[in-house]
Amino acid sequence: MLEHGGKIQQAAARYGIPVAEWIDLSTGVNPRGWPVPLIPPVCWERLPEDEDGLEEIARDHYGVEHLLPVAGSQVAIQALPRLRLPARVSVLDPGYAEHAHAWSRNGHEVRACAAERLDEAVASSDVVVLIHPNNPTGARFPATQLADWHARLSARGGWLVVDEAFMDATPQYSLCRRATLPGLIVLRSLGKFFGLAGARVGFVISDPALLAPLRELLGPWQLSAPARWVARAALADRGWQSDTRRRLHADSVRLHALLARHGLRPAGGCALFQWVCRPDAPDLHEAFARRGILTRLLVGSASLRFGLPGKPAQWRRLDAALSEVARRPCRQRPR
After folding, report:
1. What is the pLDDT of residue 101?
2. What structural domains does the chain harbor?
């Protein structure tokens, strides 16, 4: 199993710091997520029902005709490789490692591909997998470029898979409205922007010819009734979404400035995180952890991803920790 962010219980045990005293910046989850009200008791008493209105609200939210609710986009990441015969798959690197892992373990030929090599990779691939904006770099691709890649792949029965887990703050760049076209698969999630990671709610947006076998493969009751109730309410709350986009963009600019002021100028990022490349990233990760601040360490790219603090006290603690940690000389770790 691959390493991910979170795991505060594990960090608390390792560093001897109580769970309540940690600041978790490792996940990129909105720290001020959608405020979940009391869930009606009936949600716990009945089996989930597809006719509860969730799909209609989600289709309206994403501006699409067809989608499939799933138990978080991770479920789709693991299932999609099972819908194709062995194929040549190019996966954006650095990127969310579960994509390459899922395709590889299902017998596909997987190639890690830097962003600047993707255009040439399309010619020799059956499937191209992107995270957009990318995790952890925050990079986005022009709409015309994405459309060209999709057209070239779909013309020979290929797929362009686009993981939009971090797209909700910038919906104008989403490919959702194009996902009725064959060969384009868009993954969305309520975990990051909505701050509902624990609900495990996601959507696969594509044409019906792909969604039908995926639905059959995954089986019934992908989402619990309480999760469906929360998802309906959150997706319908347009006012909260608009306010949250403005706040996240402001907080992201603030985080970028804070890191830069302490000598950790980000190399990339998006509304929900900033990405810092340093050869001594493991040492910095350890130093922050000893102060009860959990960052996301990406060993392969020698970098750290910083999510957003949520409360004023957390911003002050991060500022103080940066003063102690980040100004020391950058040391190249031995290979």
Report:
1. 96
2. 8-34+239-325 (3.90.1150.10), 42-236 (3.40.640.10)
